[in-house]
Specification:
Blueprint (H helix, E strand, L loop, with lengths): L16 E4 L1 E2 L18 E2 L2 H11 L7 E5 L8 H14 L5 E6 L1 H5 L3 H9 L2 E9 L3 H6 L6 H13 L3 E8 L7 H15 L3 E6 L7 H7 L8 H14 L5 E4 L10 E4 L3 H14 L14
């Protein structure tokens, strides 16, 4: 397989075939993210993708494919459709194809095009929401409004594609911690994803947000501040049926909850950590990571 640069994928794609169809991120402007700063975005040549899939025919037990890098959905529809057709031709036992996407790339696809991709096996889209606070969305250069983010998420679900979203605890700093948590609960409720993951912000050198931190313009909440945001996001959200987690390596407190069914049980547990200021129940700093 031909890979350019450092490759990342969601934890749930740990056993998927990683097929790099783009290099980097088509947006690559978020102030907190350094993942693709060293990559210039491009769509990989179709001949290289064909070569990779021909090699993948010889792999055993491949039933899932994840399209890398940061935003494969930005590929023009005719080319992306051809790539999915090639995956099905070469790997007939594939059960699911997944990809990262940003809201702008989703909105560039018509509802009919998304349904077409679904029919070809695109079964899950991972969308970085980060926050529901309109001011913060502008400040972190997310490139879309609250309304556009919600529209993108709903468009994915209406196409029958599983929607998995991530949000970032601490993204508003101390100053906007409560507003960030409350507004993020609202956008999650409005989008009503199938999966939602809360990660905890970790500052990355050579990003704008890290520079703000060094200059004193951005102050992170303390450990209990992060947990308070988690509590509010769960408390104020309203889901139809969402698997909500905070079990990423960046998180201080691990949560796996089917919401709304397990809402009260998890709020009680998180509340006890906050009330008791119990550090022993949190992940130690040396075990945290991206």
């Amino acid at each position: 397989m031909d890979y350019e640069g450092f490759i990342i994928r969601p934890p749930s794609e740990a056993y998927s075939l990683l097929l790099q169809v783009t290099v980097g991120c088509s947006h690559n402007k978020c102030t907190f993210c350094g993942t693709y700063r060293q990559k210039k975005f491009k769509i990989k040549p179709l001949e290289q993708i064909k070569k990779d899939l021909k090699e993948a025919r010889h792999y055993e037990g491949v039933d899932r494919v994840f399209l890398c890098d940061g935003d494969a959905l930005i590929i023009p529809h005719p080319r992306l459709k051809e790539i999915l057709e090639l995956i099905n031709e070469n790997l007939p036992d594939i059960e699911r194809i997944g990809t990262y996407a940003n809201a702008k790339s989703i909105l560039r696809k018509s509802p009919e095009e998304l349904k077409e991709l679904k029919a070809l096996g695109l079964d899950i889209i991972y969308l970085g929401v980060e926050t529901g606070n309109a001011e913060l969305l502008k400040k972190i250069h997310k490139g879309v409004t609250y309304e556009q983010m919600v529209d993108a998420g709903r468009r994915v679900k209406e196409a029958g594609i599983t929607l998995s979203v991530t949000v970032l605890l601490g993204l508003g700093g101390i100053e906007k911690s409560i507003e960030h948590a409350m507004d993020t609960a609202k956008i999650l409720s409005d989008m009503d994803p199938d999966y939602a993951g809360a990660l905890t912000l970790m500052l990355i050198p050579e990003t704008e947000l890290y520079d703000d931190y060094l200059a004193g313009r951005f102050v992170l909440p303390d450990k209990f501040g992060f947990i308070r945001e988690l509590y509010l996001m769960i408390e104020k959200s309203n889901f139809t049926d969402c698997y909500f987690t905070s079990n990423h390596a960046s998180n201080y407190l691990s949560i796996k909850a089917r919401l709304p069914r397990e809402k009260e049980k998890n709020l009680k547990m998180i509340g006890s950590v906050l009330d008791e200021k119990d550090l022993s129940r949190m992940r130690p700093e040396y075990l945290r990571g991206l």
